[in-house]
Amino acid sequence: DRLQETNYLKCSGFSVLPRISFYPVHYSNLGEFFKQRETNDTMTPDWLTAEVIGVHIWNKLSYGEPVFRNSTQYYTQLARIHCPATFSIAPDVF
């Protein structure tokens, strides 16, 4: 329980980061990653803060969710920006 309350902990080069660093979206809101946005929607999601360094997509729950290469899905946007080499060879639907 105390670990969950920890904001940031570093000990001998080992860092424990807060939950928000990897779980900015609760599993019950998983659809946010895969929802198509309006083309002119340039808003950054409110959960994507400077504290976020990775995004857990709840693999068991998101398995089979299509991600479209030329879409406005947050998943696509994150992949395009943060994994450009992988994204450049991704198929149209991945």
TrEMBL record:
The keyword 4Fe-4S does not apply. GO terms for cellular component: membrane. InterPro entries: A1-4-GlycosylTfrase_dom, Glycosyltransf_32. Residues 4-89 form the Alpha 1,4-glycosyltransferase domain. Signal peptide: none annotated. One of its GO terms (molecular function) is hexosyltransferase activity. GO terms for biological process: glycosphingolipid biosynthetic process. Coiled coil: none annotated. Keywords: Glycosyltransferase, Transferase. Belongs to the glycosyltransferase 32 family. This is Putative Lactosylceramide 4-alpha-galactosyltransferase.
